[in-house]
Design goal:
With about 375 residues, the chain is of the alpha+beta class. The chain has 15 helices and 7 strands. The strands form 2 sheets. Strands 2-4-5-7-6 form a 5-stranded mixed sheet. A two-stranded antiparallel ribbon has the order 1-3. The termini are far apart. Bound molecules: adenosine-5'-diphosphate and magnesium ion.
Length: about 375
């Protein structure tokens, strides 16, 4: 008997084994039959149909690598992955279910049929490939849903933190305007105000990080702006926060154009505060902005230690940067910044169809360069 025929004719028996196994997995210990079987029948029917479809060698290799054709609608395996997330399965438990399914189908089949012909072996290979494909689909959906849930969580957290933060900031501003307060109290109020501004920038980066992972990156709203004015504002603010640091600004060419001014300000501020924070203490931060014929080039340069090439590759990706840290450093990193600034810079620049790059050398120090084209190709139609 062909394996596909066997799967369909013995479906109930296979499902019973699946159910018996699933009921041993922690989140399903008290589950009912429907929850236990979930989409197993649909997954098996897809696999049986797949076994009956002729397939060339290339398709077979692609499937074994989990690169089978993408269905327009959600596949049974994808829906299964999503359901398993919602009942609290771990990734390992989803994998274990598939492992059990694979072994029970093959065991039951071998118990009924003597596997002798080349066709039987071909069926087994095809079955394994189809299970691999289904497992990959379930796991991809599982990982995607977890990522999305984490990002929604971060977005809500960031959003909720902003209101009390706004209230603190307002309170500090009221105190700062109170002429009757002694200078010591005013100093404290100023420190509170500055800290809320810093915190607001961190929360904004966090919100941008989480929301940009949920959709199509960071939204930009381009209007006619003067980047020189924005750049001056950022440098002045950095001076206020770090009066002891020297920041040089070099300006050249026409800097008016159609970009998202608030977002560009965020890019400039992130790069300048990085240069101050991560550069050599006491060194001069050199900022330059040049308006060329078809683009604007913004550079921030600081003295600092060489950044290793491997680190340069992950500098703009906080998740990877965090993941490749040894565990003991990750614990220590808890007291440092989240490291979202450069990620947000990269996303905003990408939304403007520009590029950001970094070089690090003994002679020139660390240089971050942003190039933004004057004409952003895909602008909103009503701009
Ligand atoms: N100007 C710079 N000079 C040296 N290292 C830098 C500079 N800017 C960024 N870095 C490195 O890149 C990392 C990521 O920067 P960023 O994304 O802004 O996160 P954060 O500043 O919160 O750590 C920093 O932790 C730092 O190690
Ligand atoms: Mg930073």
């Amino acid at each position: 008997m062909r394996l596909s025929t066997f799967i369909l004719s013995e479906l109930e028996c296979i499902l019973q084994e699946w159910e018996d196994f699933a009921s041993t997995i922690e989140p399903l210990v008290d589950a009912n039959k429907k929850e236990l079987r979930d989409h197993a029948a649909a997954v098996l029917k897809v696999i049986a149909a797949d076994l009956d479809t002729p397939q060339c060698e290339r398709e077979s290799i692609a499937k074994s690598k989990g690169l089978g054709p993408q269905a327009a609608d959600d596949t049974a395996a994808e829906i299964h992955g999503a359901d398993r997330v919602s009942i609290g399965f771990t990734g390992e438990q989803v994998m274990a279910e598939y492992r059990a399914l694979r072994s029970s189908v093959l065991r039951l089949w071998a118990g009924q049929v003597e596997i002798t012909t080349a066709g039987d072996i071909q069926d087994m290979i095809r079955f394994n490939e189809a299970i691999d494909q289904a497992q990959t689909e379930s796991m991809a959906r599982y990982a995607q849903m977890l990522r999305e849930a984490q990002n929604v969580f971060l977005a809500i957290l960031g959003h909720d933190v902003r209101s009390p933060l706004g209230a603190i900031s307002m309170g500090a501003q009221v105190l700062l305007q109170d002429q009757t307060l002694p200078s010591q109290a005013l100093k404290v109020a100023l420190r509170i105000f500055n800290s809320t501004k810093r915190m607001d920038a961190i929360v904004r980066d966090l919100l941008d990080f989480s929301t940009s992972h949920l959709g199509d990156g960071i939204p930009v709203d381009p209007i006619t702006v003067d980047l020189l004015e924005i750049c001056h504002g950022v440098v002045e603010e950095a001076h206020t926060f770090h009066p002891d640091r020297k920041i040089e600004l070099l300006v050249e060419g026409d800097l008016t154009g159609v970009w998202d001014g608030d977002r560009m300000s965020q890019v400039f501020a992130n790069l300048v505060s990085n240069a101050i924070q991560h550069g050599k203490p006491g060194s001069v931060v050199k900022v330059s902005i040049r308006g060329l014929a078809d683009e604007v080039v913004y550079e921030v340069k600081n003295d600092g230690d060489l950044i290793a090439p491997a680190r340069l590759r992950t500098l703009f990706d906080p998740v990877k940067r965090f993941a490749i840290r040894p565990p003991n450093e990750r614990v220590r990193a808890g007291s440092q910044n989240l490291g979202l600034g450069l990620y947000v810079v990269k996303e905003i620049v990408a939304a403007h169809k520009g590029e950001v790059s970094v070089t690090s050398s003994e002679t020139d120090g660390v240089i971050f360069s942003v190039r933004i084209p004057r004409v952003i190709p895909h602008r909103r139609s009503n701009d």
